[in-house]
Design goal:
alpha+beta, OB fold (Dihydrolipoamide Acetyltransferase, E2P), Dihydrolipoamide Transferase, Chloramphenicol Acetyltransferase, 3 domains, six-stranded mixed sheet, four-stranded antiparallel sheet
């Protein structure tokens, strides 16, 4: 029984074996954790789904393997044990390649035995498909498999996908393959120059300066690629508005003061300003349903429920877990869910379905004293709300006097393909109304 590297999300192409819980010769039962993998977004334990003995470990700890690669083999009780592979190398080739090499030996076997020897359709997350099934979300007529992002980039760059060699699992064409094809096309600037100065060129500017060279980890590479893709492919514009926070802060203080206490005298919950903002944005998307949508290349997907992502800073990057159906949840439920999601995001323990999807997101830097900023859209979202700090500001009264109020500046980044100026303004106006009359969020 071959143990494959599972896929944890559509954009995840490889994983690193962080820890092996079993060694060669160990007996395993279904449900026993075999190893822990680390991707650019999460770490997750992978269980065995069959009983037997670990007869071979092909990918040792610390090595990276593509999705679908054979990382170990589980044999019967009498299976001969093989030592752990010294290096991933050819050992981490996808399962399809391994089976292709073994094909000549199976040619003379009876048809019934050939079927039994075929690839095992197993994966604890129902993500990895066997080689004879469509691995990716789209398959061209000639059998080429391509990701949605790669297909969209190919359309925008007028790239013939039949001439592109895929570097993803089982030959799948991924976004970087299309970017390389676009940059290497006649009349294009060299790839190194298209994305900015090369490593050597940058280093040459700092020959007399002492520095530390920090290699990029998987998360930072993915963040860099996605942000570059977003800034280059999304026609974004920005809308800013100031909202009065006095009533919301007063309501928040009243609710927190009424929270029950535990046996140690501590409050059992404490709502944050961000909880109100997530709820307000979710309800705003319900009031302006045309903005509750994402770009899907050939069409716009418009949603009934409001799923809102929340940016969480983690070591080495950023994750955006999603609060599902935030429009229907209470402030307390949103608060508890956000605390749980943020805690597990920092530990890289989120499941793919917990950080994928959503139509919009909130990025809040108010706790750092940032007054106002703009955020980059996380594709395929159509909007993202950048939230600044609440602060006391002077305003003019009706009789020409001056008084101080608490205000907060928010900026909505919009994908013009989905949300135009008037629609974005409607969404901000709905959010402003909800924040300035926050009792509507309690209903």
């Amino acid at each position: 029984m071959e143990v494959l590297m599972p896929q944890l999300g559509e954009t995840v192409a490889e994983g690193k074996i962080k820890t092996w819980f079993k060694t060669v010769g160990d007996k395993v039962a279904p449900g026993d954790n075999l190893f822990e993998i680390e991707t650019d977004k999460v770490t997750m334990e992978v269980p065995a789904i069959s009983a037997g003995v670990i007869s071979e470990i092909r990918v040792p700890e610390g090595e990276i393997a593509p999705v679908g690669a054979i990382v170990a083999v589980i044999g019967g009780d009498g299976a001969a044990a093989r030592p752990i592979a010294a290096s991933s190398g050819a050992a981490v080739a996808p399962a399809k390649t391994q089976q292709a090499k073994a094909q000549p030996a199976k040619a003379a076997a009876p048809a019934t035995e050939t079927k039994k020897a075929g690839p095992v359709k197993l994966d604890p997350y129902n993500e990895v498909r066997s080689p004879e099934r469509n691995f990716g979300p789209a398959q061209l007529a000639n059998g080429i498999i391509v990701t949605p992002l790669a297909r969209r980039l190919a359309g925008e760059g007028n790239v013939d996908l039949t001439r592109v060699r895929g570097s993803g699992p089982r030959g799948r064409i991924v976004a970087s393959d299309v970017v390389t094809a676009v940059q290497s096309a006649p009349g294009r600037a060299p790839a190194a120059m298209a994305g900015g100065p090369s490593l050597a060129q940058v280093k040459s500017l700092y020959k007399s300066v002492s520095y530390e060279e920090v290699p990029l980890d998987g998360m930072r590479k993915v963040i860099a690629a996605r942000l570059q893709e977003a800034s280059q492919s999304i026609p974004a514009f920005y809308l800013s508005i100031d909202v009065r926070m006095d009533r919301l802060l007063a309501l928040r203080e009243e609710i927190n003061a009424s929270a029950p206490q535990d046996k140690d005298g501590n409050s059992t919950f404490r709502l944050s300003v961000n909880d109100f903002i997530v709820k307000g944005l979710a309800l705003g998307l319900q009031r302006v349903p045309d903005a509750n949508a994402v770009w899907a290349e050939d069409c716009i997907l418009r949603f009934k429920q409001s799923d809102v992502g929340v940016a969480v800073a983690v070591d080495g990057g950023l994750l955006t877990p999603v609060v599902r159906q935030a429009d229907t949840k209470s402030l307390l439920a949103i608060s508890n869910e956000l605390k749980d999601l943020a805690a597990r995001a920092r530990l890289r323990k989120l499941k793919p379905e917990e950080y994928q999807g959503g139509a919009s997101a909130v990025s809040n830097l108010g706790m750092y004293g940032i007054r106002e900023f703009t955020a980059i859209i996380n594709p395929p979202h159509a909007t993202i709300l950048a939230v600044g700090a609440s602060e006391r500001r002077p305003i003019e009264t009706e009789n020409g006097g001056v008084k101080f109020v608490t205000e907060m500046s928010v900026t909505l980044t919009c994908d013009h393909r989905v949300v135009d100026g008037a629609l974005g303004a409607e969404l901000l106006a709905a959010l402003k109304t909800l924040i300035e009359a926050p009792s509507a969020m309690l209903i």
